[in-house]
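Quality-control log, excerpt.
Job 1 of 2 completed; input and output follow.
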Amino acid sequence: MNTKEWYEARIYKLENEPDWDPPVVRSPSEEEVTKKLTQAFLRGGMEWGGDKIPIGIFYQNEYVPTYEERITEQMPNYLKAPPALSPLYGPDGSTIVNIEDILREKEVW
């Protein structure tokens, strides 16, 4: 059985490994990014199936903008008025959202 004790015996922290180096720290070259992503996938995917379970930071690239930065660039008011908080229906119960306009704006058609 995969009990708490079973997991505790297999889990180890990546940051405790002497050769572990996940962050992209220099101006990222394609070679460095590929190397770091490959090591992250190998550790996360290959070891999980065995007797060891790695936890911690697998990959970190601070040169890639965060989700919030990217979405704010495309939709400046997104964080102030996120779509999840927008009303879908008017006072009379009719739909006030026109999905066709949204899809056209995002060129999904």
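Job 2 of 2 completed; input and output follow.
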Amino acid sequence: MESNIHAGADALTVHDRDQVATALRDLSEGDTAWIRHGETLISIKLLGHVAFGHKIAIMNIPKGSDVRKYGEVIGRATEEIEAGMHVHIHNVEGIRGRGDKTTQEEQR
């Protein structure tokens, strides 16, 4: 079985629609993180500390927009999220299991 994880990446995405990457190690504010996004290796300057296993925005995400990881919506941005920011409960609200926050299409 061939691995899709390439040496040298600090974080990776799983799906080409992902807006966030998962940190493969602790990363510090000001670091340049190398992120595997599909076949591309992109670099993003971190705007804050991101702990191992946590999410990093790989693009700007407007307030109120859906946030995607694994190609699926994992929540909604509660504030403007800039590329390089830590993405977690302080700036994303979960919508799964909340009938008042899901659309008809998401409920299917």
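Post-run check on job 2. The beta strands are 11-12, 20-23, 32-37, 40-45, 55-57, 66-69, 72-77, 86-87, 92-93.
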